[in-house]
Specification:
Elements lengths: L1 H28 L3 E2 L9 H15 L2 H14 L32 H14 L6 H15 L8 E2 L9 H7 L7 H9 L5 H8 L6 E2 L6 H4 L13 H10 L11 E2 L11 H7 L6 H8 L2 H12 L1 H15 L24
Antiparallel strand pairs: 1-2, 3-4
Helix pairs in contact: 2-4, 2-5, 3-5, 8-13, 8-14, 11-13, 13-14
The site of one 2-acetamido-2-deoxy-beta-D-glucopyranose has 5 residues, from loops.
Length: about 325
């Protein structure tokens, strides 16, 4: 009478362990991992780094473009390379949102890297990982910190223009709006401030900030939080009419091609280019003290930037059997 009672729990336990192992092994497969391509494409990261370095050598602005591209990818449908998909006659892609077109740059660098990756290990390395590596390598190449990236992201096959406006913050946002926007992606206000430090490289078109120079509000043409002398300098480069639509103004006017902490010094001087930049120093004591800290301690900024970038680069990623490995980053794989 007692024998079957005893063996039943043992069998059950055995089954449970088997099921648990199954679940665990699937979870391991469906998580990002360091050196994900170690066995399947050993030189993947090295290849991306070489292409990115070459590109930045001929045009440092491309490094800024790639860092921004990764941000714009991750905030819209997660880091799934949806930002890289071209529009078709049937649908307008993220790429063609005004937030991306014409200002987002560096697509050809990803194309070049992906072409090499397909040549050495076809169908293995995702466009999403390629972009994540490229953003990391851009920061390092321009004098910033470097870090290890978990990989194994898979590519999405959906890209919709209107998603961009709904997810990416505009430069007109104030501190509270920015904080909410980043919180919706699982990033704290501190991480938002830290990641804004990316504006230490690259440039902006006049249209992204000229309202601060000429049409602030009905009674005050110029944003009072903008240093007046700096405003004059900006007005010369960005006249109200007949400005050069292709011109880029360095967002960190000191060292636009160097990934340092000067962006935060800019903010302490009233020289943040966007309202969304200056608000970090002007709107609130707490955020101002973080800005002050970063402006004085570059290693602290670097350390926190790396941590926040890793978090950003893992937003809503597809892994395991989700998504696909796009052959060409500009087009979704043909359905089969
Ligand atoms: C906090 C909210 C943010 C806002 C409102 C914002 C807005 C903008 C705008 C309006 C531009 C200039 C576009 C143009 O006119 O050419 C720009 C450029 C840039 N942004 Fe942001 N951004 C934000 C956060 C970030 C983050 C988190 C990153 C990366 C981690 C980033 C990286 C860049 C870079 C590198 C550029 C220069 C691009 C180039 O030179 O091609 N931004 N951003
Ligand atoms: C315009 O901005 C100034 C400076 O921030 C402010 O004092 C004023 O109240 C604003 N006026 C209107 C009409 O919003
Ligand atoms: C996108 O991928 C899903 C599965 O991952 C598939 O069912 C769907 O048909 C694909 N859509 C397009 C447009 O290729």
């Amino acid at each position: 009478m007692k024998q079957p009672r005893a063996s039943q729990p043992i069998m059950l336990t055995g089954m449970m362990i088997f099921v648990m192992l199954l679940v665990v092994s699937q979870q391991v497969q469906s998580q990002l991992q360091y050196d994900f391509y170690h066995k399947t494409c050993k030189s993947a990261e090295k290849t991306v780094r070489r292409i990115v370095r070459q590109a930045i050598h001929s045009n440092p602005g491309l490094g800024a473009g790639l860092l921004r591209m990764h941000f714009h990818d991750c905030f819209v449908r997660g880091c799934d390379a949806s930002v890289l998909i071209d529009s078709t006659s049937a649908s307008q892609a993220e790429k063609d949102s005004p937030a991306n077109n014409p200002s987002l740059r560096g697509f050809e660098v990803i194309d070049d890297a992906k072409a090499e990756l397909e040549a050495i290990c076809p169908g293995v390395v995702s466009c999403a990982d390629t972009l994540a590596f490229a953003a990391r390598d851009s920061v390092a190449t321009l004098g910033g910190p470097s870090w290890k990236i978990r990989s194994g992201r898979r590519d999405g096959n959906i890209s919709i223009k209107s998603d961009v406006f709904a997810n990416l913050p505009p430069p007109s946002f104030n501190l509270q709006q920015l904080t909410q926007n980043f919180q919706a992606k699982g990033l704290s206000q501190d991480e938002m401030i830290t990641l804004s430090g990316a504006h230490t490289i690259g440039g902006s078109h006049c249209t992204s900030f000229s309202n601060r120079l000429y049409t602030f509000n009905s009674t005050t043409p110029q944003d009072p939080t903008l240093d007046p002398q700096f405003a004059e300098h900006l007005k010369q480069q960005c006249p109200q009419t007949n400005f050069d639509p292709n011109l880029r103004i360095g967002m960190d006017s000191f060292t636009p091609d160097r990934f340092d902490n000067k962006y935060f010094t800019d903010l302490t001087l009233g020289q943040g280019l966007f309202k969304s930049d200056q608000t970090l120093f002007t709107d609130d004591k707490n955020s101002a003290s973080t800005v002050q800290l970063y402006s004085e301690h570059r290693p602290v900024f670097n350390y926190n930037f790396v941590k926040a970038m890793i978090k950003m680069s893992e937003i809503e990623v597809k892994t395991g059997l989700q998504g696909e490995i796009r052959r060409n980053c500009r087009v979704v794989n043909p359905a089969h």
